[in-house]
Amino acid sequence: MDPATDSEQIRVMVVDDHPMWRDAVERDLEAAGFAVVGVAATGSEALARFPAARPQVVVLDLQIPPPSGVEVTREVLSQDPSARVLILSASGEQADVLDAVKAGATGYLVKSASREELIRAVRRVAQGDTVFTPGLAGLVLGEFRRLSDGPAEPDPDRPELTERETEVLKMVAKGLSYKQIADRLVLSHRTVQNHVQNTLRKLQMHNRVQLTRYAIEHGLDGGDEDE
Question: What SS3 class is residue 9?
């Protein structure tokens, strides 16, 4: 599935057990030109409707009737690795954020986010970016860095990345958006996307969260150095 570049092309499913909140999110996304192809109030409803709806982005609350948002994230991505999950939760607790990201979510917003922030996040997640409420990106990177026991030993079977792909990968690991990477390297947005897609294919990965973990495990994130 090619990354969407226009909101009218982006198919979204909204999962939340609070009817008023779910309806408001659905209404805001439709008003912005997104195609809301499914809604659900529980984890079981979401999993039952996901195959037919085939959303590119699932906007998902964590605290929903079983299965949980974390379990739904893991299951939908096992069914369709090209899908993207954006968590929209009342919780900004570290454990909730990390559980969601480890399950494969590529974005996490708290419900205090504005309508504009939500719309921008859905569009960016659909394009392949990772999006976090301010302050959470550093938390995620810090935890990935803690979980890795330093750079991995050289692996002779590790795919060879070009110098440019490695450069882009380092910036991905620092949480920069495609636009920020493009601006820094004086490249087009599309060229940066192509580099990331090539890297994903070489490493047999599906999203930027997996790339970030890989970069940190191989010492490519720059540690705590300044930008």
Answer: helix
Residue range 148-217 forms a domain whose CATH class is mainly alpha
The residue-averaged pLDDT of 177-188 equals 90
Does the reported pTM lie above 0.90?
A: no
> What is the side-by-side strand order in the sheet with 11-15?
35-40, 11-15, 57-60, 84-89, 107-110, 131-132
Task: Tell me how crowded residue 64 is: count the other CB atoms within 10 A of its CB.
Answer: 23
Specify the residue for token string 């495990």: 217
How many Å apart are CA 187 and CA 80, to the nearest integer? 30
What's the pLDDT tens digit per position in 118-149? 999 999 999 888 888 876 766 666 665 565 54
Topology annotation, domain 7-138? Rossmann fold (3.40.50)
Domain map (residue ranges) of the chain: 7-138, 148-217
Tokens of 51: 């195959």
Residue 213 has pLDDT above 50, yes or no: yes
Scanning the chain, the segments in alpha helix (DSSP H) are 19-31, 43-53, 69-79, 94-103, 115-126, 136-147, 163-173, 178-185, 189-203, 208-217
